């Protein structure tokens, strides 16, 4: 029998706010354990949450960019479960009335197809703390710095059928949310985390099979492997006449297999109830419209514009828009007068080379765009040749004025024809022997005369 895979995703994205969702503790990553905590973060009874407006703003910006309908009125609910990193015993989320619904995201997997995934809903919730299991001591340590950090959860319809599609969607999501400044989407710091719901069914069937949910997927590589493994496991079960059990499974990165974690809770197990300490979240429609108008140009739109207005190839446009910072650097270089094709070639070649050698990101480029534009102009005007220009670029990349560097090191080419002719005449007169040899066909003499002329011109 032929099988097809049906996948839906729940993606948790940490919002790039300074403060947590319901208190003023810092939401920064990387502080010493348990430094960014107050009574609310630790679940002390009787302490009331106060909603962070900035988190709502970022969530709405994200929802608009994903084509969602933003609800003017939404509300918070308690989702109960027992875990050492959740001292309150419940998470504050939006279950009955989420912030936004019904979006779409377009993306292109590596095979070049254009895919569309439907977003079922997007809602706000707060994060739990983190547990660290120390195998040596047998202890589990808990860090509550993450407790209360604002998240949006983005739930898709079951519209994916391969791991490649899932990864391409997540890359698109990451691009959109980082362009907006909604999140830094760093998988390695856990600011983008994803649960994969997967089932299989015979090709042609319209009924969904029993699904499992895989958690703990920390990289795009793990997601690809986990999808392939879980698909194979379910098909083997069904072909041997057994059933797939609806459950939550954990992906073991080292063993490269998924393991049962717990049988899947349904909504009843979470005992959802409205959060009594928070009023309904009512949004001003004019404010939402203002956020819609303020939406910056995203990578996909930039790529179209770079191709149409600047004549860049799809590959160039895609490379230059990989981050908002790199795209802005390119646009500013062009705004400083550099021809777009030249600016693209320099950034994709020399700038990216310098960044990778130094382990820097595009946000950390120290050479201002005007500096790069000047170097490009010097080549265009024939004042320096290309090799010299790269030397100048490397020398001033960390700081310095390209014009000054060229002057200080006497790198400018003499392109004044009269000066060149005068120097050549002089060299020919001074070296009649070499001129005779050259006339007799001795090529070596040419090199000698050339060297003398270059010396004369400095
Ligand atoms: Zn706090």
- By DSSP, the count of extended strands is 16
| Radius of gyration, taken over Cα atoms and rounded to an integer in Å | 30 Å
How much helix, percentage-wise, in residues?
25-40%
* H/I helix tally: 14
What is the distance, rounded to the nearest whole angstrom, between the alpha carbons of the first and last residues?
Answer: 79 Å
Summarize the structure in words.
The chain is an alpha+beta fold. It folds into 3 domains: 3-290, no CATH class; 297-408, no CATH class; 417-457, no CATH class. Helices cover 39% and strands 21% of the residues. It is built from 14 helices and 16 strands. It has helices spanning 53-65, 163-180, 220-239, 285-293, 299-310, 314-320, 324-335, 340-358, 369-380, 386-396, 402-408, 417-430, 432-439, 443-457, and strands at 3-14, 69-70, 73-74, 77-80, 90-93, 100-107, 115-126, 130-134, 139-143, 150-156, 192-202, 212-217, 247-252, 257-263, 273-274, 281-282. A hairpin with a 7-residue loop joins strand 6 (100-107) and strand 7. The structure holds zinc ion. Zinc ion (ZN) binds at residues 20, 23, 25, 37-38, 40-41, 148.
